[in-house]
Amino acid sequence: MNEKETTVFGRLRKSGIxxxxxxxxxxxxxxxxxxxxxxxxxxxxxxxxxxxxxxxxREIVAKVPGMLAGMGTILTxxxxxxxxxxxxxxxxxxxxxxxxxEAALAAGLPFAPGICTPSDIERALEYERRFLKFFPAExxxxxxxxxxxxAPYAHLGLEYVPLGGVNVGNCQEWLRHPLVxxxxxxxxxxxxxxxxxxxxxxxxxxxxxxxxxxxxxxxxAV
Length: 222
Prior knowledge:
Layout: H1 3-15, E1 17-21, H2 29-39, E2 43-47, H3 53-63, E3 68-72, H4 77-85, E4 91-92, H5 98-107, E5 111-112, E6 114-115, H6 118-126, E7 131-134, H7 137-140, H8 142-150, E8 159-162, H9 171-176, E9 183-185, H10 191-196, H11 199-214
Parallel strand pairs: 1-2, 1-9, 2-3, 4-5, 6-7, 7-8
Helix pairs in contact: 2-11, 4-5
């Protein structure tokens, strides 16, 4: 990894919990990011699933500098260009697409591809990817499954960010494990709360998650 990736992935590791969000309205971006930050969550991944995603990212980058804001669900080379232009601090994909990874590396975008099998891990290693999204985490078999597929690569220092079925009830177990660089927190800001503008509830969920994180030895604030 280059210096930029080392810095960004280091911040994600220290944050421990990365809020994963789907936004339908650009105007929700800043108050949502501020609520998460006030609750103690310092990193977020917006997803490229709605027309509002890129505009929301631009707003957060411009107006909430304390938030480390990246973009997920990056599926194409064109989307890599779009998220770089919008100021994403990092990029994430659900799978391991070599063309997308190559584009991200060429653009200087710190990038975590998704893995679910040993073959995925080995393809990621071809591009020196060592900070990897594990998706879908719980449906695939959870922590026991990750331990099994990660075992042959344990000496390489890989770190995994599980997403999919991770929630307030099991995130502590994930965060305690040495394989886990952080968890994807899609439960922090469900669409219903965002649509209602219930920033207080989102702030409270973030504070609860931060409390769980801070109670784990070796985890701490950015």
